[in-house]
Amino acid sequence: MRKITQVAVAGNNLKVYVEGALLDSNTVGHPHAVNTTTSPTSSTPAPAPEPTPTPPPVVTPINLVGINLSAAGFSGTTVPGVYNTDYTYPAESYYKKYADMGLKLVRLFFLWERIQPTLNTELQSAELARLMQSLDYAQKYGVKVILDVHNYYRYYDKQIASSNVPISAFANLWQRIAQKVVNHPAVYGYGLMNEPHDTNGYWPQAALAAAKAVRTVDTNRWIFVAGDRWSSAYHWPDFNSQLIADPWMRDPNNKLVYEAHMYIDKDFSGNYFDRSETFDPMLGVNRVKPFVEWLKQNKLRGFLGEHGVPDYSTSAMVSMDNLLKYLGENCIPMTYWAAGPWWVNYSLSLDVESGAARPQLPILRKYAGNTACSIIGPTS
């Protein structure tokens, strides 16, 4: 007796598979021949292979810790000035040095009067070439750059929104810059203006016009919008409510990031006049909190564009350590003030003439390794 393992219809015939050796078609099945195909090894078809699961998208962590690089914005009272006498751009070695340390975000500051000596005209070719060379250096070492117009809301000491410097001219500057750099992969974003102050209430209009001008050219990269009153994080809510009065400035699709600055000395200036001053461990956190809470309340993104502490103060180092931990928890990037050439023996600098080890660096490198954030925060 044989066990039937499978039955199948084939045209007008019926195929029957049984266990064991082949049947002899001469002795069975008369008058119809028996198909003598060997029975399959299994009574059921082999299951179809499982589909390959789609891998999750690759999430690239953002750079949470970076540096300000000098010295294209130096000698602001001597403009345009003479290259390599009044100002310079950082050499390639600086990009390599800090990239090797894991500090791959650079805020590169330069002056409006040098990149565009006359309003509403083409950018100055030699200065533009220096800027593009800097971007090339950055790209070579995997560094991302925020381009920062370091002008304090002024052009040849005349305020934006005055008859001398109309808002349209400020927008024109940014449209021209964006047109030149839009295709460069090292550009992380556009820093519209360093530390606006005493703006007579016109900064929100100027920022809106400049941001929209950038968006006519580049719809993808971040636009960094500094706050009035020297961008003070501590004073931010009292001076910058009108910055987001226009709904366009609150639209997340416009990829805006609000930029504050914060120093922990008595007058908030970063000059650290009193070398005997000591600092509470949580002072940095407490001074930046008003800005961070404002961001959360309005569901916006933030950036601490400047913060620095003097090399001689151990209590300042503790404060900075706590600050960077807090910023990282909120996915808010920061760029330390400052690094690059020509600082001589400036106590806040990461690059000094003596070549002495800088106590700020281990703290920066510690938090540069934070890979928990994939996008600028906090937004909520």
UniProtKB/TrEMBL annotation:
A GO term, aspect molecular function: cellulase activity
Biased composition (Low complexity): 33-45
Stored Gene3D superfamilies: Glycosidases
Annotated InterPro entries: GH, Glyco_hydro_5
Chain ranges of the Glycoside hydrolase family domain: 77-340
Ranges of Pro residues composition bias in the record: 46-57
Classification via SUPFAM superfamilies: (Trans)glycosidases
Region (Disordered): 28-57
Disulfide bond found in the keyword field: no
EC nos: 3.2.1.4
GO terms, biological process: glucan catabolic process
Keywords: Glycosidase, Hydrolase
Highest taxon above the source species: Bacteria
PANTHER family: ENDO-BETA-1,4-GLUCANASE A, GLYCOSIDE HYDROLASE FAMILY 5 DOMAIN-CONTAINING PROTEIN
Protein family (similarity comment): Belongs to the glycosyl hydrolase 5 (cellulase A) family.
Annotated protein name in UniProt: Endoglucanase
Organism field: Azomonas macrocytogenes (Azotobacter macrocytogenes)
